[in-house]
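Students often ask what a 'structure token' actually looks like in practice. Rather than answer in the abstract, let us consider DUF4239 domain-containing protein, a protein of 254 residues. Its sequence is given first.
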Amino acid sequence: MTIDLKNTLLVCAAVLALLAMVKRLGSSRPHRLSLAQKNLIATNFGSFTTLYTLFLGLAVVTLLQDYNSLEEAATQEADLLRVEHELSRELPGSGPFREALRAHVGWVMGPGWERMARGERDDGGEEIYRGVWQALHGMAVPDAQAAQLRLFILDKMVDINRLRHRRMLAASGNLYTPIWVLVLLGAFFTVAGFYFIDAEHPAADLFFAAMMLSLVLGNVFILYELDTPYSGIIHIGPERFAALHAAMAAPGGG
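Now compare that with the structural description of the same chain:
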């Protein structure tokens, strides 16, 4: 069981415990609202939960788009690294450049990905990545054709650099702290609202509470998973870079 799933189960247990406390408080200290007051509160509560679930839904859709875009960017980064590796074969003395690329990919798929999974914005491979640039600058260009090819490789390295920074920046999530505060406050007020909302029918009250909490907690769980793109149940793994590293390390691939 992953740590994210354990944390989610703990949150769910805490919310259910809070709901039980609210219901018990309602039994021991009934609110004694009139029917008109109950209807007014039910209307206000319905408006609040509608706005809250819309807010959650919008956040989920936004993060899902970011997640899919990030997954596509990781694929593009790996593909460009493969292209650079293969194109460099046409240049004399390009062996150190390919070795530097292989070392960079090996770091990204291993320690680098582990650091990003912990939410760190730096994969720790700056020195290795700098070695790729140094090897590129040290490549010989004996003629105009080689110079043009090296210029093309350099242009693609600029794209790789942009994709690399995007990959690392996403490790700490895209939702700012104030948004998470609103999400958690909304969940708290939703649970607290059940103190005033009751149909005076235990089965109906339980069904309504379970339905609402399932929707709210499900959205919060998906938000958390999408906001930690390199860890959890929903995550982007290093498989693309692992496959690329294996191809580079294969006989004849260096």
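One point worth highlighting: The chain has one domain: 3-22+35-249. Ask yourself how you might have guessed this from the sequence alone, and why that guess would often be unreliable.
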